[in-house]
Design a protein that fits this description.
The chain is an alpha/beta fold and 308 residues long. The protein contains ten helices and 14 strands. The strands form three sheets. The protein has a six-stranded mixed beta sheet with strand order 6-7-8-3-9-10, with helices on both faces. A four-stranded antiparallel beta sheet has the order 2-1-4-5, covered by helices on one side. β9 and β10 form a beta hairpin.
Length: 308
């Protein structure tokens, strides 16, 4: 368990993290979101012991980071932004180096390396210098070094940055499997990653915690949650849709042929929209109920504190 109490961090008088408090339990995959400069990376560096808080306390597995930093670091796997590594080493040399640092020797060291290579699928690049790898493979090497000691806590800064869609899917599935008995914290700018992997979302801006709940609860705060969107194959008169019973507002994009209908509170408009479209033979390619748009609600939450 991670317990953060009244965490502050300032640099030369500039407040970067402002009174953060939260608890995270095993099995939780936390998406840590925020605009650039929000304090995400600073908070993660304090959790890993790389930065010392200006004030406040961090407890991991009931141990204080102030008093037991070395013991706590053994429980953490950390993938920092940029996945720094020794570029002149081959992948296998680098993983051997990390395994030795973590205290593994002999058969145990070989076993840990083999397991993590299989987990992250690095078999084809083991003998290649890290500098010669693609950005995606460098990211996977960084993930491998974070996993090599089977940590209780994984802290990942942009874990799928630079990966192609297949690699993103594989890493996300790996994270979900690992989270069964671990705490996983993911800092990401990719909002779809939140719904794909996380079961909890924390949003910070200007160092303050603005939202802490499930991805579904975040979606529900979107103005689009429960709205009905239609795509037309060619331009058609959609004005009558906005006059249907239960429709509070209509948003129309003439360039894309997309129309979104916002229901009045408590209204279910899907069957009315469908019936009207069939009756009027509207040229509809697709029709669906919106689950919320994370980009819209993210902007709303973070801009409120910026403008406040």
């Amino acid at each position: 368990m991670i317990s953060v109490k009244n965490l502050f961090k300032s640099f030369n008088g500039l407040q970067v993290v402002n009174d953060l408090s939260f608890d995270i339990n095993p099995g939780e995959v936390v998406g840590f979101l925020g605009p650039n400069g929000a304090g995400k990376s600073t908070t993660m560096k304090m959790l890993t012991g790389f930065l010392v808080p200006t004030s406040g306390d961090i407890y991991i597995s009931n141990l204080s980071l102030k008093q037991s930093a070395l013991e706590i670091k053994k429980k953490i796997g950390y993938l920092p932004e940029g996945a720094p590594a020794y570029g002149d080493m081959t992948v296998l040399q680098f993983l051997n180096f990390i395994a030795r640092i973590r205290g593994y020797k002999g058969v145990e060291k070989t076993t840990r390396i083999e397991q993590v290579v299989q987990q992250v699928e690095l078999q084809d690049v083991l003998d290649k210098p890290i500098d010669n790898l693609s950005k995606g493979f460098k990211r996977r090497v960084g993930l491998a070094q974070a996993l090599i000691h089977d940590p209780e806590i994984l802290i990942l800064d942009e874990p799928t940055d630079g990966l192609d869609p297949n690699q993103k899917h594989q890493v996300r599935e790996l994270i979900k499997n690992l989270s069964k008995d671990k705490i996983v914290i993911i800092s990401t700018h990719i909002l779809e990653e939140v719904t794909a992997v996380c079961n909890r979302v924390m949003i910070i801006s200007k160092g303050e915690l603005l939202f802490d709940d499930t991805p579904n609860a975040l979606n529900r705060r979107s103005k689009y949650y429960g709205a009905v969107t239609l795509h037309f194959s060619y331009r058609a008169d959609a004005s009558e849709l906005g006059e249907l019973e239960g429709v509070a507002e209509m948003e129309e994009d003439l360039e894309t042929g997309r129309v979104t209908l916002f229901p009045k509170p408590g209204a279910d408009i899907l069957h009315l929209v469908t019936a009207h479209a069939q009756r009027c033979k509207l040229p509809i390619d697709s029709l669906y109920v919106e689950q919320g748009r994370l980009d819209q609600v993210f902007r709303k939450i973070t801009q409120e504190v910026r403008n406040g």
